Batch of 2 targets.
Target 1
Amino acid sequence: MWPFSRKKKKTGEIAKERMNSFVRGTSGAAVIERGQTIKLENSSDEEINSIVTYIKDYAYRNLSVDKKNVKVHISKEGNSVTIVASIIYK
Amino acid sequence: MKYAKVFVITSGKGGVGKTTITANLGASLAAKGFNVCLIDGDIGLKNLDLVLGLENRIVYTILDVIKGNRSVTEVLVKHKLLKNLSLLASSQIANKDMVSPEDMKDIIDKLSKHFHFILIDSPAGIERGFKNAIAAAQHAIIVTTPDLTAISDADRVTGLLENSGFTDKNISLIVNRLKPKMVKKNEMVSPEDIQNALAIELIGVITDSEEILLSTNEGKPIVLDSEKRLSIVFDNITERMNNNFIPIEEDLKKLNQSPEGFFAMIKKLFKREE
């Protein structure tokens, strides 16, 4: 066997990563606690994208709405960002 | 007596230990002197009577109360050893649609005057039975095991509870069937990981133990045997349900202590099956 083969990842780490990918509170890069209002200043596109993902995941999991039926509109004005989500029920 | 504190023990996924935990929390509270009523919310698939060893004592069920055949206090069955622990049994022949959330609210309102604590054992799933079980509860305890399927369902149930008016202030988490050695070897997610992911308060960690199966075999809640190591864990959880602070680490500390001495351990090693 090749002596320098890559160390296999522990299954606990894999489980933790998978858990954090599907759980509502930790979907995307940012952890958003329930009921918490978040204020963004000088936010990067990456942060905004993670919020959009969170909103879509939330609608999908809690309101049983298909992700494609969740439209998220983002408008930037200077340092402030406004996010409006439209959820389309059929 | 003042109005009771009403808890629902739920999970979403079946087989995570809701019924056993409900029985043991009820027995622990009763052993501390509280008047406790357990409600088997699993209409059609009842099990709580079995875990409590009361299966042969059930004459009337929740259905008799709903139909108006009997009053709610008439159908309660007292535990054999803990007279202040009562069970409102479910019916094997009924189905979940025969009970409505309004029925549950009405029953719990009547029981509230007689008990300090009411614990409702919720059925698996998120359908009518779940809605019935949470209808009159003030506090929800979500039970999960450390596997991803159970955690995913616990997350879904947390969302549904929040949609029904619960908040992170009245939703708590119990992690059941934890294997500390696997967590130590990083082969299992830790209770802290699960708590962080679900973002709800952790009020108990119960390790995987043969003691649970043995107690169910006997129909005797584990907390009635003070020699059992898990009994202290249930006692700690009921203290937390009473808003008394006991660090979670206390549970694991007790469970990691070996009850056997060195010689008992050696004896066990050389013990042969007869």
Target 2
Amino acid sequence: MIVRVNVTVNGEQCQADDVWPGESLLYLLRERLGLPGAKNACEQGECGSCTVYLDGVLVCACLVAAGQAQGRQVRTVEGLADGAELDPVQQAFVETGAVQCGFCTPGLVVAAHDLLNRVDRPTDPEIREALAGNLCRCTGYEKILEAVRLAASRRNPGGRPGEAAEGESR
Amino acid sequence: MTNPSNPSNPSRTRDTALSAPARVPTELTTSVPGGVGSSPHRPDAALKVRGEFAFASDLWHEDMVWGVTLRSPHPHALIRSIDITDALTVPGVRAVLTHTDVPGTNRYGLERPDQPVLAEDVVRYQGEPVALVAADHPETARRAMRRIAVDYQVLDPVVDAEAVVAGAAPLLHPGGNIVRHQPIRRGDPDATAPVVVRGTYRVGMQDQAFLGPESGLAVPAPDGGVDLYVATQWLHVDQRQVAIALGLPVDRVRLTLSGVGGAFGGREDLSMQVHACLLALYTGRPVKMVYNRQESFYGHVHRHPATLRYEHGADRDGRLVYVRAEIFLDGGAYASSTPAVVANAATLGVGPYEVPNVAVDCWGVYTNNPPCGAMRGFGAVQAAFAYESQMDRLAEAVGVGPVEIRLRNAMRRGSTLPTGQVVDSAAPVAELLRRVAAKPLPPPVDPAEVDLRQLPGGVANTTHGEGVVRGVGYGVGIKNICFSEGFDDFSTARVRVEAVGGEVAATVHTAACEVGQGLVTVLQQIVRTELGVRRVSVLPMDTSIGDAGSTSASRQTYMTGGAVRAASHAVRDRLLAMAAAELGATATDLVLAGGAVLSTRDGAAVDLAALLGADAVERTAEWRHRATEAVDPVTGQGNAHVQYGFAAHRAVVDVDTELGLVRVVELACAQDVGRAMNPQAVLGQIQGGSAQGLGLAVMEEIQISAGRIRNPSFTDYLIPTVLDMPPMRIDVLELADEHAPYGLRGVGEPPTISSTPAIVAAIRAATGLALTRVPVRPEHITGT
């Protein structure tokens, strides 16, 4: 059985033909719609590298069948920046050194973006819990925490201050 | 800031340009201040946060088909026959290949060509590649692969490295089952001491678990060769091995580095490189291969599991008199880099301590377990767990603290290693230990106040503080930097300067693999410092320029940084000569700064862009570190190493003794980096390296049973999450090494080495248990 999938991705109406029923939303995005931002690192929902919004809710695109996205809204990491201007989360990742190899980055950026949409000034334990589904092998996470704190302070400068940074480093 | 466009560059034009893929690595350009010692943003960071950076698994070609690999289900078996007839009948299949289709030599290997590209009459590990399929859709390829009929005669697997050393195993390779035995003998082999501690320690098999799986795209070229876009750590060693297997001249196999999703040693050996090229040459189509996570666990080498038997003798003050050790490293089915791992474990086997009498024997052997090779720390990790555990035992036997015992024995500049080599640059082992010991300790758990997320078990809500005990432990380690034992270790760099739209622009071209560590940033910084320009482009790394050596052994900033500095100096000399002629000055009175040439004598200046006009100045440099030598095969004596890196950790842990759960509360680290070329990136290496050491301490192990991997997934092989990795307190020392470019010292590996023993020592301190094996599992703590 072969199906056709219509889905809105980053505000654009997209159509894919000849979709095999076993294909994931991740395969649809990466191999059929030319959006390789969401990464494939485990295909089991363990690493979070393929994190995208589906109707505004975070999902691992590897665990969603392509057909399940029919008629729905998907937002990927490619849809976060406003043209040349990076989203504050993206900008903070660049500035703090939260990007090394960058394979986990798209998933973490989307997950952090979602957290800051829900919580103005998250505490460190809140950040850790929100990002616990996203594996990073390069950074040891410290600079990712820094990035989220920085993005939060810029997005909500008057918000409730999060708890003090946990560590210190020079 | 980042310019993803790839303007044509005459030095990179090829007759294969028409068949270039649609999504490829791009030139990275930034025009910012930021020389050596500062932390400019990575030139690829914006692409990466946008999801637009072209990782190897993102490559795409209009005409491409997909390749998959059939692997052996058995750790040891004879192949009676392979029947591909059924697989060929699947619609959409383009090719099905076996070892008879390998046109060149069906062997490869980093140090010894002992591994078949595709298995012939025997398979030596579970997961060994046996056949390849190319098809229009990856699922079609997988279905066809399952229709290949391989008739195996299953054999008993050899799985015990110590039994192999004892000679109690059937022959797995024609030359014998011992890949390397390296003894180290120094001083009196029969030395005695009043205080003796003994221990046997075991290290499980750790996986690099880089997030970007093995992948690449091979494009057949009109000249009968192939262009391979791939994620690797060493382009030229791949190129040489692929050419031999394909039976092609080296210049017909051209490699370009694609985005690398982490490496940590796991990409030093070939994985899909020859396979994709074979399929491309047979189908005449571009072939993409991407491993999934399960295949990745079978598709690359791992860290050697080890058994280490140690005896330390000391005087009553705890000063070491002798160390005797036997180290058994399980190399698995093929040699990979086992010989060099053996050398490291042996030569660094007593750790960063002064020991007058040493007798170490280290063996690396063949078994039918998964092949093991390079992983961050490379032999030094296994030894450090054992010698640091021993130092804690010695401290207890002598009745002093763990820091004090280490201070009394700490190596320093001028110390002699067990190889006889004298340490001739900074070795601040004592200073590093004092620094981590002086850090304030985190406050104790207050059950009334504590956030459950900060207790062992975390969000699983398994304790509210009852049964939780705290411990503090220390570890310090040593790692050789750069390639050792007389290897001709060099790198090549080309630097070009020209005027682009009135701005002076520099371009750097090397074959040095950026794997995430930030080399691209550091190379830009070096050019800025040496040439006084802002705008620096880094070309995609490829084999159209000379070898840069491997991105491993913490060597690439040292080596390719050294080559870029040398090429920059050659460019600078030419520019100063041009300016001297223009100004009627002497070149030695001129300096480059701010896009101009300035006279230090009279302040005269000439703008570089004007000086260059329509011309470009381009220079290529090949650069070497000072020579090393092989160690004696019987005594292990010799000046084997170039440089040493040192790091120390203090770990604080909370342990739930009822459930055996560990939470690392804090890690403190002090490391000497010689010169922090990019302080932000240095911290990133220390934090990331420490996290991998934490993983080995309490989580990470490829579990092997009768030669089979039982947990080839991220569901069952656990790496630290952001909930597992604690905050860190970090001190970075910059004690220049006068032998190294900018005084720098390799950064990447030392923090991985010392964090593991520090964490285990902290768990011991909390629980009083001996804990002689890593990773420490809950049942080791609960005794159940």
